[in-house]
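Entry 12.
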Amino acid sequence: MLVHLENYAIKLGYPRLVLETNKEWMSAINLYKNNGYIEYERDHQRIYLTKDL
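Predicted 3D structure (tokens):
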């Protein structure tokens, strides 16, 4: 599903994707990081990740 989202974003001309998840949801964070997403911000509840397409 993540690959589908990335491919669709590329098709639409987006230069990057930005994701947000709960900072304690480690399986989601690891999934995103293992697929090339980089953490760029964190607050008391959330972590934000980005990936250049």
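Annotation: Strands lie at 16-22, 38-42, 46-52. Residues 2-52 form one domain.
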